[in-house]
Design a protein that fits this description.
With 135 residues, the protein is mainly beta. It has 1 helix and 8 strands. The strands form 2 sheets. A 5-stranded antiparallel sheet has the order 6-5-4-7-8. A 3-stranded antiparallel sheet has the order 2-1-3.
Length: 135
């Protein structure tokens, strides 16, 4: 059986700051200077008011589990894993994976407190993932 290719995200000028941040272990999000809304994913304008005056801010890394599905479509040797939407403490939602706990409905409780962690994907990309927050 042939090995499936590993696809990596391709940073763009609009997202490079985000990927540079994850490589340093920082989850960066944007905040509109005009209306103060935080948003994700990165883009050059605010999705709420369309202002192009935006700043990059470091997220607290705290979140809660908003929604998830457990993937059972696996490559050989791979275990089921959660594909999740988390809501950051600052408000934006993002897709990610939940790690550090069993990948079961009993362990993955909606609204559970999470914290960001980072996993190197390849030499250029580090992915933010979330794990249960320490009490």
């Amino acid at each position: 059986m042939s090995k499936q290719p590993k696809f990596s995200p391709a940073p763009t000028p609009e997202t490079q700051h985000y990927w540079d941040g994850t490589k340093r272990g920082e989850l960066l999000i944007q905040q509109c200077d005009a209306c103060a809304s935080y948003y994700f994913p990165p883009r050059p304008f605010c999705p709420k008011c369309a202002s192009r005056k935006v700043s990059v801010k470091k997220s607290s890394g705290k979140a809660f589990l908003y929604s998830y599905v457990i993937s059972h479509q696996l490559r050989a040797g791979q275990e089921p894993f959660a594909i999740a939407v988390v809501e950051l403490e600052e408000g934006p939602r993002m897709m990610t994976n939940i790690i550090g706990c069993p990948q079961t409905p009993e362990a993955l409780q909606l609204d559970m407190a999470l914290e960001v962690t980072f996993e190197e994907w390849d030499e250029n990309i580090t992915l933010p993932k979330f794990k249960p927050a320490k009490s």
